[in-house]
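Re: export button greyed out
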Amino acid sequence: MATEAKLSHTAAMILQAVNAGYVYGFSVMEMTGLPSGTVYPAMRRLERDDLIRSHWEQQSIADAEQRPPRKYYKLTRAGKMTLESSRKRYPLLAKLIPSEQVESV
Amino acid sequence: MTLQFASVFHGGNLGLLRLASLLVPGQHRGEWWREWRSELWHVRQACTPQSDFSWKGEREVAAFCLGAFQDAFCLRREIGHKRVPLATTKGSAAQCMLFLVSVMAVSYCVALVCPGVRAELLSSRYRVPHNLIMIRSPRYRQDSVPTISAEQVRAWRVRKQQIFDGFAFYQIVHKSVSTSRAQTVLRLARASPNLFELLALPVRFASTGREIRTDVPKLILTEALWKKEFAEDPEVAGRVVEVGYRKAVIVGVAPAGSWRLPGKVDGWLIEPDVDAISDGVGFVVAHLTPSAAQQRWSERWRMSAPTPEGTFDDFLCVSLAERTRESWDLFLFAVILAFLALPATTSLPLGEYRLSSRKLSWSTRLRRWSFLSVKIALLLPIVYLVSLDLAYMRTTLDTPSSEYIQLVFSFSICLFGLRWTLRDQRQRCPVCLGKLTHPARVGQPSRNFLAWNGTELICVGGHGLLHVPEIPTSWFSTQRWMYLDPSWEILFPESGLVSTGYF
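Workaround output, generated via the alternate export path:
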């Protein structure tokens, strides 16, 4: 994926949220305020373009916490570069979603 | 009570997700369902209280679930773009269609060019063929032999009839006809005045507004004679010509192909009265009374009837429906026969047996079946047109001979056409519908118990290999299709086809 790819504001916001540590769909929804019908398709497209990648949580961890395993997302190298260029395009992005790890995966 | 409400809503949410999952392509459905189900659990935990029921929370969960439909639509659209295109190599589905359409176009052009075929193709039907009967002597097998005398017909007409309410008579004569251009000897059907009315045959250019004398014979021309001798003159009706030593007035032109009765004629000389025909033998067409028609006799039966001499004789009655079988009926009969005979000549399965349990996507399967259906749909008009071309190309043949030829060719072409259709389908890739190529021998007959031996064919698009056993065994009796996974794609870069997306 080219690093110069221009993302929409919504896609950039989701990328920023994932980078900030909101690593599953519902947490991205909560952080951005976007509906599920927008977040999940957008994350699927970001994954298709190799900007993020997903992996399933280990079953043993989920069993220990008595809940179903979650699908976590993480920025790729190309994703990080695209996010950098998006921050220049949308300067308020970093202020909307501060880049702090809220949950370690 | 609160927990019951919550579990009902949870079930409804799962139902919504399940419904949305049906929109997701099969190969992605499992993963999609797992993610959304997991997320739903967490959403419920976050939005609805554990020990109480909250309408607001349930609304939020429901809104979350409705978003699944949007996601499913997006995923479906995205996967849809990856549909495998049809092969464009030699022997592709498009080339096959083009070939069939070309054959159909050529056979249709031939049908339009040949007068006999064109007449048959565009001919009209008799209005009431089931109530019309040809009466003849049973002594002759051929119905083209005239056997009934004019005197016999007159004897029947004067008697009170219970079975028939009308008789028409005609006999074939050769007469010299003098027109303004030339004198020529024609083959005419000298007929009783009610022949055309009984047969409900159409006559063109009949109404010219001119007074036509009723005491002179009327002449109806065939379309061929009208074109040849009268230069397609639309004002031909009303003209007086000499037929033998008598004058006759032309009253119209019968369209080509409308005459289906025995005897090939150039025209019809309609006498003012059947009494004018005093000698010779001819053909009789009779019309059944409504009560007799209701009894639904077979299409061929015998009757005993009085003769002019006062004795009784046997006569054979043949329905015109049997004698003038329509070419379309014959074609349908031949097609049904061919379909019935097909399983005896070739195996019906299309040979799509897989080595693995993975199934092709419904759209790929639908495309394959549509291709087969279109091939058969194109084959049927080809069978009809080619059989008509072959049967009616020679105008010298009489109608029964042409019908036999049409029946035989319809059956043969349809049967071999269907065999070819199935065989062609078996030799095509189920994914891109391209012809399989590069046959290679695999294994040795002497080692048949250790490994299979036969022929291996490959799809040039890289979708798979077809293994056809040479000696069918209990463990390898039919041909098998082995689909290639995307790791083989590197071997088929020139094809430009995507090997994923068809499962």
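The CA atoms of residues 323 and 400 of chain B lie 7 Å apart. The button fix ships in the next patch.
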